[in-house]
Amino acid sequence: MPCYRCGARQTDPVRGASPWQRGVRNESQVLICPDCQRLHDLDLDACSTCASTALICRLGEVECRSCGAVWLARSSDALDRPAAVAPPPGLSAEVEAALNRVLGRA
């Protein structure tokens, strides 16, 4: 999944915690790259109880990691969600090359 702001894709992870951040925007889980995290206005959803943006979205629910509030995502039906963004050119070739490396294919 690319960064929702700039479209950058994650590279192979290094050991340790990922510098990428998760967030919820329009009640859908998004990733935020380290460069975009420096921006002050990420336009993320906030908890209506405590105003925290530390939210996670899973199985049609949004949960606040700060206060524990849980609510149903209005866009839990896949038909209500916007169409998926087309992958950047060359992504399928990169995925195929990565699979070949991992699976030891020539």
UniProtKB/TrEMBL annotation:
Lineage: Bacteria, Bacillati, Actinomycetota, Actinomycetes, Streptosporangiales
Protein name as catalogued: Transcription factor zinc-finger domain-containing protein
